[in-house]
Amino acid sequence: MAAPVFKGATNLLGTWNLNRKLSDDPDKIFSLQGVPWVVRKVLQYANLSLEIQQAIFLPDGTTTEFKVDDSGLDSPADAITILRIKQTVNPGGFNSEGIYHLDGNLQSFSLPIFGDVRMKLQYINVADIPNEPLRQRLDKANPSSIVIGEVAHNRAKGWEAYVIWAFELVDGKRYLTRNVSTSKGKQKVEARMVYDYHA
Fold first, then answer.
1. Are 193 and 24 in contact (CB under 8 A)?
2. Could you tell me the domains of the chain?
3. How far apart are CA 94 and CA 113, in angstroms?
4. Is 28 in contact with 192 (CB distance < 8 Å)?
5. Which of 37, 69, 148, 173 is the most exposed place for a label (fewest CB within 10 A)?
6. What residues are paired with 48 via a beta bridge?
7. What PANTHER family does the record point to (predicted)?
8. E strands within the chain?
């Protein structure tokens, strides 16, 4: 199901299922990240979903939970968005759950597929994305011009990934996408993941 018009990078509340038909094959990225062949084969056929809860941490120390149709754009400039993301991979059992602060600070996670990862997430403006073709695609489907920029790296395995969480028009319909660019040494691989929306 395509995303409702009120959904944007500032409100990801809901369940998002990976649409394999519309997504690129992520196998080359997984290979570059050192994911074992057997695990990659399981992931190739597994159903993947992201269940996202969202809240705003206000300057006075209180927290406000999001509602399904909140825009998220009226929050104070110094408020911090918090995402609780539960990822389910079935079959495979590579499920994970974490709390992510969109404040631009490094956070450490231990993930079943990727191992120990450090990452930072923050809101960025579409105009600040250096990839011009991607920037042009996002301009059409993100009226607020706000998207999520993620930087993740695994020091032990030597890879770094840049991810843009945003919305795009795919086959004429609006979907949540994650554009992933992963590099390791001189190697670089890119892929786009497309997600169906389920309230």
1. yes
2. 14-198 (2.40.128.20)
3. 7
4. no
5. 37
6. 89
7. LIPOCALIN-LIKE DOMAIN-CONTAINING PROTEIN
8. 14-18, 47-57, 63-65, 80-90, 96-101, 107-111, 115-125, 146-154, 159-170, 173-184, 187-198
DSSP state of 155: T
Q: How far is CA 138 from CA 7, 21, 76, 144, in A?
A: 14, 20, 25, 11
CA atoms within 13 A on the CB side of 37: 0
d(CA 81, CA 72): 9
Q: How many of the other CB atoms lie within 10 Å of CB of 45?
A: 9
State pLDDT tens for residues 156-189.
999 999 999 999 999 999 999 999 999 999 999 9
What confidence tens digit (pLDDT) does each residue in 33-76 have? Answer: 999 999 999 998 899 999 999 998 887 777 777 766 665 555 65
Q: Looking at this protein, which amino acid is placed at residue 104?
A: G
Calpha distance 146→124 (Å, rounded): 6
Q: Are the C-beta atoms of 199 and 14 separated by less than 8 Å?
A: yes
DSSP string over 61-83: S-EEE--TT---TTS-TT-EEEE
Helix H or strand E encompassing 32: helix 27-32
Q: What is the rounded distance in angstroms from the CA atom of residue 41 to the CA atom of residue 57? A: 39
* CA angle at 34 for the pair 168 and 88, rounded to the nearest 5°: 55
